[in-house]
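Reference record
================
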Amino acid sequence: MSIQVNITNNSGTSSSDVYWICFGLDSDPATSSPNWSYVDVDSNGNASLQKFTKGQDCSKLFKTVDELSAFNNLPPMWSGQFLFSFNQLPNVFNIVSGGQNGLGVQTPPFTPGTADADTLFVVVEFTNIGTELYADCTIVDYFSAPVSIEVIGKTDSKTNGIMKSTSSRDAIFDGITALGSPWSNLIMKDGSGNNIRVLGPQHAVQTTNPNLLSSTIYDAYVDACWKNFKSNTLTINCPTFGTYTGTVNSSDELVFSQTDQPDVTIQKPGPGKAYDIFGCVGTLAAPNNTPLGEIAAILGAALNRTILSSNGNDTQPNCTTSDFYTVQNGVTNEYANIVHQNYKSGIYAFPFDDVCSKDSPLIDITNPTNFNITLSDWS
């Protein structure tokens, strides 16, 4: 099915200074051996996929929005991305050895001290299988500028990444700044003092020289919750695998049980394991389609939102949004808090942010006809 792509630049940056490239895998990696490829558009506005080659000068593959803002026939692509870079090309976008069929795509780095620390760019993720299009505007790793998407199908349409009418790019930077240290440390500026991005806290706890956010920031809260569940019960209502009840054992493991099912054990995310909580990895890794995965996701969301009880029995998930992000024992995920204060819905601020979500950050449209991307107004 033919999908038309339209790119609208309302950012305030001249369209001649907004560079973009669309790339991804040319077939399903679950059933084939795909190649990393980029979208090439002919003089008639029709798109096709071209395989990357090792050592290719990728700077020549970027277009500006004033040069090309619409095309037809978005090809089937897996792990696809639209990468938009403002005011300059990324310093890093290379085809390197490794990955699929011996080649991989090295995308711009975004953490302090890296080659593109001062480059402002945004990403839209998608997979187009032809009869179905999946897309999202993730800001799990960082927030740099607002971008929204709309996917239209033959019978329905969905949007993602829409900011509130009273919100703006500046409002997110101002909100993080107002928190003071250590959260204001997440703001990355260029040499002229311009705001470039707010770094996701899972990356901030891993930075060194300086360390932007302490890896122990969650320790007191985790200690209080684990102490609580040594004598009280945590009930988890899994969407697929039913209800599990858990308590903390003498080894500081949170052990969940269900009649006639194997126990599920979660190791304590601490001390010094804020990365596990913010990134939903390590002790909170969530394997797909398992009780462990669903329990870890719900527990990870509760810790990020600081709604896990440190006093008495508790049942999760707690989906009362007014309870989210209240500071407990000196912490909550303030990055997620500020992001959600400024977006209507449908946005990921941490990997398990879809727990309780009525509006999934992932758009899924069958029989898609249009994929509209808007680089939203910054002011």
In short: The mean pLDDT is 96.
